[in-house]
Amino acid sequence: MTPGDLTVRDATDADLPAVVEIYNQSIPGGWSTADTAPVAVADRVEWFRKFHPARRPLWVAEIGGEIVAWVGLTSFYAGRPAYDATAEISLYVGTAHHGRGLGRFLKERMIAHCPALGVTTLLSMHFDHNAATKHLNDSLGFVALGHLTEIAVVNGVKRGLVISALRIAPAG
Ligand SMILES: CC(C)(COP(=O)(O)OP(=O)(O)OC[C@H]1O[C@@H](n2cnc3c(N)ncnc32)[C@H](O)[C@@H]1OP(=O)(O)O)[C@@H](O)C(=O)NCCC(=O)NCCS
Fold first, then answer.
1. Which of 93, 110, 138, 162 to mutate to test the pocket of ligand 1 (most atoms within 8 A of CB)?
2. Rounded to an integer, what distance in angstroms lies between the CA atom of residue 24 and that of residue 39?
3. 3-167: CATH number
4. pTM for the structure as a whole
5. So where are the chain's domains?
6. pLDDT, tens only, 27-69
7. Ligand 1 centroid distance, CA of 44 (Å)
C-alpha cells in the first residue's frame, strides 16, 4: 500500500453499510471493541449523524473504489462545551488489509488535521490487550492517562481499558 493507491474522503450516508461492515469484522477478534455481536446499520444511524467534516470528521479510505478502512473523531463526554477541544479517535481497518500501513497512515493524517478542527487533546480508548493500537499510539506520542483494570468481560475473560491522550499544538 502506498498513499497513491488510497483515496481518503469524508463519509457520506451511502457509506454507512461499509463502515458498519468493517466495524463488525473487528468483533470476533475480541480485542478491539466492547460490542460482542455484530451491530446493524440501523443501530449506527444516530452515531453516524453526529459526524461533521468541519468539527468531527468521519473519513473513509478507498482502494480501487472499495472502502477498506475508516477513521473518525467523536466528542468526549457527551459533547459538553468544556471538552470542545478534546475528541476521541476511532480507527478501523478491514481485517484483509491489516498490517499494510493503513492504520498508521490514517491516524497520522487525522492527527495532522486536528489543529484545523480546533482539537488539542486527542483521546484513544482501547482494551489493554489491543497490542496493535498500543504499539501505534506509543509510536505517535500518546501517553496513557488511565487504566481501568478488569472493567469489561470479552469472551468470558476480564479485560481492562486504557485511556491515552495525545496533546496537539493549536493552530498558530
Ligand atoms: C489497530 C489497527 C487500526 C491497526 O491498523 P493496521 O493498518 O493493521 O496497522 P499498520 O499496518 O498501520 O501498523 C501500525 C503499526 O502497528 C504495528 N502492529 C500492527 N498490528 C500489530 C499487532 N497485532 N501487534 C503489535 N503491533 C502491531 C505494526 O507493526 C506497525 O508498526 P510500525 O509502523 O512501527 O512498523 C487495526 O489492527 C484494526 O483495525 N484493528 C481493529 C480495530 C481496532 O482495534 N481499533 C482500535 C480501537 S478504536
1. 93
2. 7
3. 3.40.630.30
4. 0.96
5. 3-167
6. 988 888 888 889 999 999 999 999 999 999 999 999 999 999 9
7. 24
